[in-house]
Amino acid sequence: MRDTIKMTCGNCKRDNYVTTKNKRTMTEKFEIKKFCPACRAHHPHKEGKISKG
Q1: What is the total count of domains within the chain?
Q2: CATH code for the domain in which residue 19 is found
Q3: How does pLDDT run across 1-45, given as a tens digit for each residue?
Protein backbone atom coordinates (compact mmCIF):
# COMPACT_ATOMS: atom_id res chain seq x y z
CA MET A 1 0.00 0.00 0.00
CA ARG A 2 3.03 2.30 0.24
CA ASP A 3 4.07 4.23 -2.86
CA THR A 4 7.60 5.34 -3.63
CA ILE A 5 7.71 9.09 -4.26
CA LYS A 6 10.44 11.58 -5.14
CA MET A 7 10.81 14.97 -3.50
CA THR A 8 11.42 17.83 -5.96
CA CYS A 9 12.82 21.21 -4.92
CA GLY A 10 10.37 24.07 -5.43
CA ASN A 11 13.18 26.50 -6.23
CA CYS A 12 15.52 24.70 -8.68
CA LYS A 13 13.14 21.82 -9.67
CA ARG A 14 15.72 19.07 -9.02
CA ASP A 15 14.82 15.66 -7.60
CA ASN A 16 16.78 15.40 -4.36
CA TYR A 17 15.11 12.83 -2.11
CA VAL A 18 13.26 9.51 -2.48
CA THR A 19 10.82 8.31 0.20
CA THR A 20 7.59 6.35 0.62
CA LYS A 21 4.10 7.36 1.71
CA ASN A 22 0.94 5.53 2.65
CA LYS A 23 -1.84 6.20 0.11
CA ARG A 24 -4.67 5.46 2.57
CA THR A 25 -3.67 7.87 5.33
CA MET A 26 -2.14 10.66 3.20
CA THR A 27 -4.35 11.23 0.16
CA GLU A 28 -3.16 14.78 -0.63
CA LYS A 29 0.18 15.84 -2.12
CA PHE A 30 3.04 15.82 0.39
CA GLU A 31 5.16 18.95 0.87
CA ILE A 32 7.93 19.55 3.40
CA LYS A 33 10.76 22.03 3.84
CA LYS A 34 14.08 20.22 3.32
CA PHE A 35 17.69 21.07 2.50
CA CYS A 36 18.49 21.27 -1.21
CA PRO A 37 22.15 20.43 -1.92
CA ALA A 38 22.03 22.18 -5.32
CA CYS A 39 20.69 25.47 -3.89
CA ARG A 40 22.58 25.00 -0.59
CA ALA A 41 19.54 26.25 1.34
CA HIS A 42 16.25 25.03 2.80
CA HIS A 43 13.34 25.14 0.34
CA PRO A 44 9.90 23.46 0.14
CA HIS A 45 10.06 20.07 -1.58
CA LYS A 46 6.94 18.70 -3.28
CA GLU A 47 5.92 15.13 -4.01
CA GLY A 48 6.33 13.63 -7.48
CA LYS A 49 5.69 10.13 -8.76
CA ILE A 50 8.40 7.70 -9.80
CA SER A 51 7.56 5.82 -12.97
CA LYS A 52 7.60 2.04 -12.63
CA GLY A 53 9.10 0.95 -15.90
Answers
A1: 1
A2: 2.20.28.120
A3: 788 999 999 999 999 999 999 989 998 999 999 999 999 999 999
